[in-house]
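no rush on this but wanted to send it before i forget. theres a chain ive been looking at and ive put its sequence and its fold in token form underneath. i want to understand how the tokens follow from the sequence so walk me through it. thanks a lot i owe you, the record is right below:
>
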Amino acid sequence: MDKMFAFLEKYLMGPMGKVSTWRPVRAIVAAGMASIPFTIVGSAFLVLSVIPQAFNIQFIIDLWANSFDKIQALYLLAYKCTMGILSLYFAVVIGYEYTKIYVEEEGLNLNPLNGGLLAVFAYFLTIPELAFSKGAISAVTGESTINGWTVGGDSLTRLSTSGMFTAILMSILAVQLYKLCVKKNWVIKMPEAVPEGVSRSFTALIPGFVIAFVVLFINGIFIMFGTDIYKVIAVPFAFVTHITNTWFGIVIIYLLVHALWIVGIHGATIVMGLVNPILLANIAQNVDGKFFAYAGEFTNSYVTIGGSGATLLLCIYIAFRAKSEQLRMLGKASMGPAIFNINEPIIFGLPIVYNPILAIPFILAPVVSASIGYWAVQLGIAGKAIVQTPWPTPVGLGAYVGSGGSLGAFIVAIICAVAAFVIWYPFIRMYDNKLHKEEMEMAAESAIS
């Protein structure tokens, strides 16, 4: 086990620790967190439209047909204006947060609001579809495309979750160019008497021109070769998305998350922060009729039930069945948070970090529960995710609501929790006996003294 920890520290903790400090990664993670309220709000309104199918009771179907269905076009705007334009939110937040990081860490005279707006500007420059023909570049026009702007799904096609990776890269590029202009002093400085809002707008003027020239130049070259920035970016990220949507890819993801936890790094924040854009894109495509098993809150519905390591039933077990007084007290203190998928008390209280006895089930249990969840959805036993649920939603309920009312999803989530505990059981029994023996020896020593 010492060799294993040394290996993880050298080849995993070191590299991933560096990745977690990268400024673009921190900005992307911040964007993912900032998008949570919007995705949940939008999904809450989407739930209204799927309730009749979820319950499949004639009374409810008739009730909805005479009430909510008549105003569906109105209330679904809340979904279309969240998930339908999610890439736009990502661009704003990444531009803002990335700029803010440079301000705080390098003391540059940048304005985070300008960074956010310039990021949106750079992203929007990639949205219209253009074509090169007979020596001229013109806007594409078609059945669903007007002057290059293609409408599809719930909004402009390239504003939806399919444009997430373009938004990310364009935002990073925009902030880098903005930073370059400020460092080179390519900005218009106004007198101190000029109001701050006016001064700020002129500060962004030259960076805006630079961003426009750079993005248009790159996009123009691609257009002449029959493609554009958006399509070029989609190629490598489509490959990454494909890998993460396989069973093997999912196993690797959760192995990384929990291996990082073992050596003291919050694996969920780093790894899932990068994976969440894919999960959001997949759930949006599920709503549009496609099928992705790995979507939405798959992690907290089937994998990390009770928190990282799938420790919900473990908490309940040690609270009532552990011989060790230490474990019983920890279990009772951890049960409440565990119901809502929060288990830092267990991770650091048992502890699981750097614990050779508990490292194996901590890594193995979520891999097994993820496999059960993935194949259950893939084989149609549990419904695919179509609703984004809050991550603290208790076991079973999150899977049920997230799948639009699939009873199979509820049952599979319970099975995942039980399967995880079956893996935990022999290890926690051994650890409990060890601690109980130590407590008895300490009590005996105290009695003698």
